[in-house]
Amino acid sequence: MQLLRHVFALCLFATLASHAAVVYKWTDADGVVHFSDQPVEGAEKITVSGESLNRSASPGGNPPGGNLKALLDKANASKPGLHYLSFVIATPVKEQTFFDEPVPVSVVLDPPLEDGHALNWSLNGEVLTDEENRLSFQLTDLARGTYVLAATITDLGTHEQTSTPPITFYMHQHSVLAPHK
User: Fold this and answer.
1) CA 95, CA 38: separation in Å to the nearest integer?
2) Is residue 80 within 8 Å of 52, Cβ to Cβ?
3) Which of 12, 29, 100, 158 has the fewest C-beta atoms lying within 10 Å of its C-beta?
4) Residue 179 falls within a domain, yes or no?
């Protein structure tokens, strides 16, 4: 009888778990939005139906998480602001050194840049106006030195902003005293 109760409880738990999932969403002090299945103080609780989750994992259906992402996008659509799951500089990497060559610059942005949002780049605190809304480009003709690169997305309606962590990189050039090195 005791075993039967445990089996029943496990079946009930499995059934309930397969029908709903809870996701917690919060924004940290740097403006980065996070999602987790674990509760976090100050996080918004989002309940997702198991039917949506099961469909997203079915063969021939949407990729895993596709419906979850759609539900989260729908939840965010009614709220103004910046709702990017990923916004980081991909290249250059932190502390990378270049030797008298163009510096490739790119950002990973998910979802894509929304209408009414502007992407701006800054190099050593100066805005690069020629690179506005560009996800990738090259920096050329940089003098020898240390550079700090960052990207910022601004909601043009609310003026809310989110920025990538800054990336420091170095440019070396051939020396006049030792041009062959």
Assistant:
1) 33
2) no
3) 29
4) no
